[in-house]
Amino acid sequence: MMINEKIVIEQRLSDLMEKAMRDILPLFQRIEAVEEENQRRVLESFRRHKVSDAHFQGTTGYGYDDFGRETLEAVYADVFGAESALVRPQIMSGTHAITLALFGVLRPDDELLYITGRPYDTLEGVIGLRPGGDGSLADFGITCRVIELEDGKIDIARVNQAITSQTKMVAIQRSRGYACRPSLSINHIKEAIKAIKDDHPHVCLFIDNCYGEFVEDREPTHVGADLVAGSLIKNPGAGLVPSGGYLVGRKKWVDKAAERLSAPGLGKEVGPTGDALKPMFQGLFLAPHTTAEALKGAVFASRILEEVGLLAEPKWNDPRTDLVQSIIFHDRERMIAFCQAIQATSPVNAHVLPVPSPMPGYDDEVIMASGTFVQGSSIELTADGPLRPPYMAFVQGGLTFIHVKLAVMNALKVLMEKQLV
Ligand SMILES: *Cc1c(COP(=O)(O)O)cnc(C)c1O
Asked: CA 20 to 30 Å from 234, out of 9, 204, 241, 371?
C-alpha cells in the first residue's frame, strides 16, 4: 500500500470516529443512568446482607452449611426482587440453568408454551423440538407448543386463548438470542405477564434472561415473573466468573429446580463452592458496570459500521434490552476479514486466525472470533456467525468500552486496507 493511501485511510478513520463519538454521547448518559440505578441496588443489597470476607471461603465435599453460598443466594434474590435464588458453580451454562427450570417444574402430560417464537438453538434438544435429544422433555411426555411473536411483540390474545389446563409453564425469551427478532423490554414483559396471570393464575411464568441482566433498571422478577434463569459467563458474572449459572424466582419453583440440580430430597442443602464464591460476589458487584461498558461498545460498533454502509440490527439509537448486536456484511470476505480482525485485537489468542469451519448443529460453516479469558464467554468481546447470506455476524460483549472501540477501529482499518468498505 502506498504511503498516501495509508494517510487517506488514517484521516477517514479519525473523522468517522469523531463523528460516531459525537453522535453516541447522549446515549451514553442514558446507559450510565441505568448503570447507576443497578449499581445502587446491588451495593445496597451487599450492605444489607453484611457481605464480608468470611463469605468468600467456600466449602468442600457435600457443601453443607455453606453460609457464603447462602449469603450469595440471598443477595441474588434481593437484587432480582425475588423470593429465592439458586446460584451455583455446578450449573454449567445458560442452557443447563434453563434445563433445571424446565425439568424442575414440568411433569409428564404437562405442556410448555413458548410464546416468543422458537427458543434458542440449544434448547431445541432439551425440549425435543428436534430429533435426537435423548432424555428431552418430549421423551418424558411433556409437550411444547410455540407461539410466534407478532410484529416483534408477544401476541397476548393468542397466548391467552392457547393456554389450557395442561399448560403448566409459559416461557418468554427476553433476548433476541441469535434470531432475527427484537429483544423484549421489561415493560412489555410486565404487560404480558399481567394479562396472562389475570386470565390464568395457575401457570408458572418463566423467563430466559440470558444477555438481559442489568441492561434495564429492573429484571423480569420485579414485574411478576415466577422463575428466571441465566448464565454467569454472560452479564451477571462480569467476566470474573469462570463457570456457573443462576435461577431466581418464587421459592417453590427455585426449590424444584434445586431438587433437579442435586437430587430429590437434597435440593439447595448441598453443593460445595470451593474457590467459586469470591468471583461470584465480585462479578455481581461489577455486573452493572461491565454490562454498561458492553452496551456502549455495541452502540459505538453499530454507529460507526452503519456509517460505512453495513447494516446494524438493532440500529445504533434503538432502545436496547439485551447485549446482542448483529452486523450484516452482505459479503463473505468482508465478514471473514472483520471477525479475523476482532480476534487479532483480543487480549487472548490474538495471534490465532479464526477460519470458517463446520459446527455441530449448523448447516453452514461458522466463523468465531473469541479471544476471551473464559472459554465461550460472551460478556467478553466476541464476533461470530454462520457464513450464509446475508452474512450476519453477532458482535457482543466487551469488558471495557475502550477495548471494543479499539477492536472495531482496527477491524474497520483492515476492511479499508482490503478495500472491502
Ligand atoms: C446464551 C443463551 C442461552 C444459552 O446459554 P449457554 O450458556 O450458551 O448455554 C440461552 N438463551 C439465550 C437467549 C442465550 O443468549
From this structure: 204
Expressed in angstroms and rounded, the spacing between residue 231 Cα and the centre of ligand 1 is 7
Pair (146, 262) in one structural domain = yes
Clarify whether residues 345 and 310 are in a common domain: yes
Q: Are residues 298 and 399 in the same domain?
A: yes
Which atom in ligand 1 lies closest to the alpha carbon of residue 96? 9
How distant, in Å, are the alpha carbons of 24, 99, 123, 250, 252 from that of 259? 47, 12, 20, 14, 11
pLDDT at residue 132, as a whole number: 67
User: What's the full length of the chain, in residues?
Assistant: 421
The residue out of 267, 284, 301 marking a domain boundary is 284
Distance 307 CA to ligand 1 centre (A): 30
Say whether 249 sits in a helix, a strand or coil. Answer: strand
350 and 243, same domain (yes or no):
no
Look up the domain containing 191 and give its range. 48-284
Flag residues of the chain having pLDDT under 70: 132-133, 361
| CA–CA gap between residue 290 and residue 237 (Å, rounded) | 9
CATH number for the domain including 296? 3.90.1150.60
111 within 8 A of 168, measured Cβ to Cβ: yes
The DSSP secondary-structure symbol of 364 reads S
The model's pLDDT over 62-97, given as tens digits with 9 standing for 90+, comes to: 999 999 999 999 999 999 999 999 999 999 999 999
Residue type, 101: A
Residues with C-beta less than 6 Å from any ligand 1 atom: 93-95, 120, 122, 173, 175, 177, 208, 210-211, 231
- The pLDDT tens digits of the residues spanning 192-231 come to 999 999 999 999 999 999 999 999 999 999 999 999 999 9
